[in-house]
Automatic annotation (TrEMBL), chain A:
<dbReference type="GO" id="GO:0005886">
    <property type="term" value="C:plasma membrane"/>
</dbReference>
<keyword id="KW-0762">Sugar transport</keyword>
<dbReference type="GO" id="GO:0005524">
    <property type="term" value="F:ATP binding"/>
</dbReference>
<dbReference type="InterPro" id="IPR050107">
    <property type="entry name" value="ABC_carbohydrate_import_ATPase"/>
</dbReference>
<keyword id="KW-0813">Transport</keyword>
<protein>
    <submittedName>
        <fullName>ABC transporter ATP-binding protein</fullName>
    </submittedName>
</protein>
<dbReference type="InterPro" id="IPR003593">
    <property type="entry name" value="AAA+_ATPase"/>
</dbReference>
<dbReference type="InterPro" id="IPR027417">
    <property type="entry name" value="P-loop_NTPase"/>
</dbReference>
<keyword id="KW-0677">Repeat</keyword>
TrEMBL record, chains C, D:
<dbReference type="InterPro" id="IPR001851">
    <property type="entry name" value="ABC_transp_permease"/>
</dbReference>
<feature type="transmembrane region" description="Helical">
    <location>
        <begin position="21"/>
        <end position="39"/>
    </location>
</feature>
<dbReference type="GO" id="GO:0005886">
    <property type="term" value="C:plasma membrane"/>
</dbReference>
<dbReference type="GO" id="GO:0022857">
    <property type="term" value="F:transmembrane transporter activity"/>
</dbReference>
<feature type="transmembrane region" description="Helical">
    <location>
        <begin position="130"/>
        <end position="150"/>
    </location>
</feature>
<keyword id="KW-0812">Transmembrane</keyword>
<feature type="transmembrane region" description="Helical">
    <location>
        <begin position="303"/>
        <end position="322"/>
    </location>
</feature>
<keyword id="KW-1133">Transmembrane helix</keyword>
<feature type="transmembrane region" description="Helical">
    <location>
        <begin position="103"/>
        <end position="123"/>
    </location>
</feature>
Amino acid sequence: MRLSGQGICKSFGPAQVLHDISIDLYSGEVHALLGENGAGKSTLVKILAGYHQPTSGQLQLDGQPTRFATSDAGEKAGVILIHQELNLAEQLTVEENIFLGRELTRGWFLDKAAMRAETRTLLDRLQCDISPDARIRDLAVSDRQMVEIAKALSKNADILILDEPTAVLTGREVEILFGLIRRLRTQGVAILYISHKLDEIKAIADRVTVLRDGRHVATRAVADISKDDMARLMVGRDIAQMFPDRVADATTPVVLSVRDISVPGRVYNAGFDLHRGEVLGFAGIVGAGRTALMEAIIGLRVRSGGTIARNGTDISITSLSDAKKYGIAYLTKDRKGRGLLLNMDMRPNLTLLALEKFGSPLIDRKAEEAALETAIEAFDIRAANRKTRVGDFSGGNQQKLLLAKVMETDPDIVIIDEPTRGIDIGTKSQIYHFIGDLTAQGKSVILLSSEMPEMLGLSDRIAVMAAGRITGILSGDDRTEHEIMRYATGISDKNGASPL
Amino acid sequence: ADKIKIGVSIPAATHGWAGGLNWHAQEAEKDLEKAYPDLDFIIVTAKNPTEQANDLEDLVSVQNIDALVILPFESDPLTIPVQQVKEAGKFITVVDRGLSQPGIEDVYVAGNNSALGAQAGEYLKKRLDGKGKIVVLRGLPTTVDDERVEAFNASIKGSDIEVLDMKYANWNRDDGYEVMQDFLSRFPKIDAVWAQDDDIALGVIEAIKQADRTDEMFVIGGGGMKDIIKRVKDGDKLTPIDVLYPPAMIATAMGITALKFETKAAVEGRYILGATTVTPENADKFYFPDSPY
Amino acid sequence: MSAETGKRAAITIDFKAIGPFVALVVLFILGTAINEAFLSSGNLSNIFTRSSFIGIIAVGATFVITAGGIDLSVGSMAAFIAGAMIVVMNGLVQTLGTGIETVLIGIVVSILLGIGAGAVNGLVSTRGKIEAFIVTLGTMGLYRSLVTYMADGGTLSLDFAIRGTYRPVYYGDVFGIPMPVLVFLGVAIAGYVLLNMTPFGRKCFAIGSNEQVALYSAINVDRIKTLTYIIQGLCVSIATIIYVPRLGSASSSTGVLWELEAIAAVIIGGTMLKGGYGRIWGTVVGALMLTTIGNILNLTDAISNYLNGAVQGLIIIVAVFLQRGDWRRKKN
Amino acid sequence: MSAETGKRAAITIDFKAIGPFVALVVLFILGTAINEAFLSSGNLSNIFTRSSFIGIIAVGATFVITAGGIDLSVGSMAAFIAGAMIVVMNGLVQTLGTGIETVLIGIVVSILLGIGAGAVNGLVSTRGKIEAFIVTLGTMGLYRSLVTYMADGGTLSLDFAIRGTYRPVYYGDVFGIPMPVLVFLGVAIAGYVLLNMTPFGRKCFAIGSNEQVALYSAINVDRIKTLTYIIQGLCVSIATIIYVPRLGSASSSTGVLWELEAIAAVIIGGTMLKGGYGRIWGTVVGALMLTTIGNILNLTDAISNYLNGAVQGLIIIVAVFLQRGDWRRKKN
Ligand SMILES: Nc1ncnc2c1ncn2[C@@H]1O[C@H](COP(=O)(O)OP(=O)(O)OP(=O)(O)O)[C@@H](O)[C@H]1O
Ligand SMILES: Nc1ncnc2c1ncn2[C@@H]1O[C@H](COP(=O)(O)OP(=O)(O)OP(=O)(O)O)[C@@H](O)[C@H]1O
Ligand SMILES: [Mg+2]
Ligand SMILES: [Mg+2]
């Protein structure tokens, strides 16, 4: 046994988030950690790696009681944690981040050549082609996550803890990561793996520990437990049906019609129609330009040419508030950088986008509180305390709050970018049903997602993008993973010449 | 033909007296350039001694002046820079504050800071019959202020005049007002105020008026600002006199320097401008309503 | 570390909110100990009246800083507005006479100039995408030059004929409360309401805390930022309106270093220099603290005048240290 | 909009890097147009020599600001160190005579004081968890008071006997390059190497960019931050060492507003006021630009002296606007 936690308890102020949890990690084993949003997974692993101190309980390393006073002490003992929340300095480059605090030197000076070469090697191992000199703030989220992984790799972990590494990764990147994890396992590294994706746990883990409300529920061999059982242990009840039952009706009027929109360098002549009560999925490989297209539509990005019509009349949108006026709302996939004010509590975050609804000239605090009450209920947001900074929320609860924030504007058209990133399976199903309810009310949804099941399970039609173009729009029985991949990789292209 | 260039380096107009200095310098430039078409005066202003040293360098290297008229910010730091101008073969006129080493300047038009302090002290002694309680508002901690205060202290030495306290008011009206307000809260009885400078004095006067203690004391300023001269002229009991320290001395110096080039006469030596006491009787002579100071 | 903060959040936040008040009370006790005259109603009234100028300007600065900006031009702007007011009113005395109209027009001019100057700072920095530090450093020089130029290097003095009419704006009082204090109170309350209770204030917090999030929350970042500079300009103009009748003059030395004092008042009050968190009451107390320190130094001759600056500096540091309440940690 | 940045990264960054140089060249052309004497070797040498003071201080400020701090005390610190040096050297003239030893000891004193003063700023702000703005505002008053006190309100002057020995440090040259310029160059190169080529510099960037991340990367944030203030102190002391032989004196007005000039040079050079990104060469150019603007104003008397500040302010804004290169966007 490499590392274990014995009777770990943790409180933040009056709120106790971990109750008497014990967990053992063994060399050459992948141990999965499973639990609802806010169950305490991240908190537990932060304690194991020395980022937090337990309120009571102790850690053992190779059977010896031990204490990591700082994350540094943890790292010295070989415990490396990849944070759920990206933990990179945005203004520094990839190489600078990877070697931050332990730069390679020649004499007094930085050995930049060596660091760059090393970075290149690390990135190559991850089959990641970003430049070591790219600044983090210019990278897409998935690339940032790969940098995070590369950074951990470079530290030669004995015990590697990954907190939802795949939430922002693409299928291909997940495959690469899994290959890596398997290799590390054979090399005798102890691995603790957190994910909400039960398939992944089935595929990679040897044992699984389930937490619920900060308590240890069970530890089982993965081979002995089905996905349904895992979900049941986690949520404490059966999950009835993942996706809502919906009947597509292609005859409803078009509420949004986009023609010929381009974003220099990212999107070329994109166009589509969105019908009332429809879920229109947008699939594609990360970087295909889906986000860029949507941001251009809602006025957050300079676009060149094209027209947008709402209910048949041309409209001009040059800013997000224009879009809001026309009943269009957008949920960003970058919840920390663009979604939430991390240093504030829930209330101002919830109402920021729809402030005018809460009174003018003065903000009606009571109305805000009431809205918060409703949102907490509707989106099942679990925070230890109303006054907790949103930055201290569990990742999933941040996502739910962001969704609640966007819905405060009561939009007719919702553009949702990666809505279930980091969301547990129970809540995911809630969100899917919520989307179903929206369409039932006659609202329309544009869903940007990299998760194939939700794309297929929710969308009435699926637009596929490749290299900045919409290569096809699939409906009916064409909506299969295979077809999507054909269009996403540019093998098929209904809309003219190959983009490549 | 090329004009004869005379550089004039003075402190920037950052307080009342320096403002007057700037105004007089510019007026003199206009007048003298009209009177002597072959002369070109170049006025540069500096906010601190370092900047003034820079200005001197520029006057020599880019303007290639023939003569320099300088009112040094402070004596010590500008001694070497002026000496360098001298070494470049220029004619030097120093105004007001003497340099720390003798023999650098050709002409010295001296103001007399000690006299300003001494005259104020003498008047106080006489007016108060050698005893009373006074407060003093000082300028900025610099040599000029030091000289004035030292001479003032010396002149009241031996009398029964008690200086209740001295505070810096930075040659600034607002500071004069606030410091005086606090003196007024602190001391129930004040016979006179030596404000040393007319800007400060104006602030002091407002504070006294506000506290309704105008009958209790009087104020002595310094410099010769038109507002104060006017009060003296009008016989205001609060400001019985003012001690002149005329910023017009820069004009005098510029005029003298011009003569060096316009006449064959030997122009050199010291011109000492005393500190004149302005009283209701002679105030008319010193009242220039058009001057900004 | 964040755990620690989290844990004692309840206590710490409370203490942080009252921190500046505690520091102010300590200063008052110190003042009384040094000189009994400190607590005289005359002296207290002086302190509050004096704080008004910097205080009103600092209320505006709280908006700018909360929204992540900075304005170095306020002192020069005050001098410039004061100068322009004086020129305008002196001119009007000839035509309109010395009635209240002349003063009112002067006040309107002041407000228009304040708004205009603020708009210049705001628009140049947002549209031109130039750091506010540079823009306002530039306009600081600009406004100061303008007043020097208007005054011909000297002092602009308000016509004595009109002073009587205007005088009560500074020297008057209502129920014994000096006018400037009333105005300060009014500005502080208005500022508090605007910053804490309106959508506009909320947006200032959001922008200062994360501009991207603000942008993605349909906030017109440039507009709100520009508005904070306009509010700053308006506050400067209000401060100037009560400043002018005091001494009736403006010169190039008017308002020198007020920007530093205003920013210091804001920061002492607990607003974060990096933006995202602002506190009007803290600012008010910060302004009072700065004035009180100056007042206390004038009430004693125990300290060499040469060392005033040192004592002032040390008191500021210690006061801020005390009010942060971090020293309390050590106990546990 | 952000896409724009991403996409054109290559061009934009290049332009940003050369931006300050372009602005400087424009200034030089302006200077030459106004007066041919601008390009005379004497004048150029003056400009470079003068830039040295502020430039050396600004190199230190680049470290502080890059690591997310600010130091308002540099001007007072310079005055204080200059004063102390003068007192020490004058004292030594009696015992040691006017040889090089006296000057050397003066220099050592200066360096020790610079390091000490920087350490005070750094330690009080990091250990005391007080905003650097407040701490250095406090020490700004403190150091200035100390020099006033030492000078008894007047001016401290270096003994004329020792001036000759010390003189070459400012007035000397090597192969025609004035000593101050050589020292400036040395400091700039050392600063560049330290900031860009050593682990220390990288840590400064990291701390300014995200303190939390730095902390998690086992960086001793407090120590690095304190070190930046010490470097700042050291730079101030070096600047003072070449300043003292120039004017041979120190008083309470020495170094007033140098902090603003130094920070302005840093920001003009492209370093971000919020920290996380610093550029030594930009700072050097920023210092040169500020000096050149002052020099250009002395080249002509077409502009009223009263408006110097206005012209200076406008040139700074325009220069920064040009160098940011954002105006190029409009073309597309
Ligand atoms: N620093 C903190 N201060 C206060 N509360 C905290 C802090 N960190 C975490 N919490 C709270 O502890 C609880 C557990 O959070 P944690 O991040 O461990 O959940 P999680 O299981 O990782 O959830 P998710 O799946 O959403 O990531 C949450 O209620 C969270 O708000
Ligand atoms: N290189 C970059 N420079 C600047 N911003 C970027 C860059 N890459 C991504 N972003 C920003 O991140 C956001 C999402 O980027 P991403 O690449 O995922 O979007 P996309 O190209 O539209 O791809 P997708 O189809 O996966 O949404 C966009 O808002 C974009 O502004
Ligand atoms: Mg988590
Ligand atoms: Mg001329």
